[in-house]
Write a structure and sequence with these properties.
This protein has about 250 residues and is an alpha+beta fold. The chain is about 45% helix and about 15% strand. The chain starts with a helix and ends in an 8-residue tail after the last strand.
Length: about 250
Amino acid sequence: MNEALRRALHRAHLTDSQLAERCGVDIKTVGRWITETGRVPRARHRWAVCEALGEDESVLWPTAAKKAIKVGPDREVVSVYPYRSGCPASLWRSLITKAERELTFAGYTNYFLWLEQARFGTALQRKAARGCRVRFLLGDPDSDLTRSREQDEDVALSLSTRIRVTLAELEKIRRQPGIDARFSSGHAYLSVFRFDDDMIVTPLLTHSVGHDAPTLHLRRHQDDGMFDRFATHVEELWNRSTPVWEGDNNG
């Protein structure tokens, strides 16, 4: 019996038939995945299951994950997506849910999170109340850099408008201790989102918006590796940034 898969199905509130439909397999196949100890689905089916359930492959099928373990400098790279829009919303939700110490959203607008994550503000308040540090690093909607990027993007929903939507949502939860927001111009073309020891990084390309950016899912495995270098970058920006709310200094 694959207990990890059975529990993940229960947490996701999915039936065997619903998972089978999402993965493009017969319900009997899903039944064998659950009941037959040691049975490992094909790679494309494992990935489909992980996306549907918001779980890591290493949790559901540790033996398969061990065979693919990297030992070089790239071992911190968990997944690569040609577009941020291809990174499953379930992965974002899973990373947010599992984080206990730190949630840092250093996207220039962070607008998409409020659209794709149900009750996002409530989730952030709950995390902060339990001692998790929640930080937002935003672009200044009135800056020359923002106006320049708006011309570069040339889309109907402007960059400044998307930033202001995020600011309006943050205003609703700003009184919760542990939630802080600052303005910075140093991450205009690089977004970094940290969830404890996991991270999603998106380098923005010329004439493209965030959801079209290539995306990396990183997990920390070493000192001064890729994860630490991006984390240090964000900390330096944070220390040089300006508080969004006058008089606030939550650190």
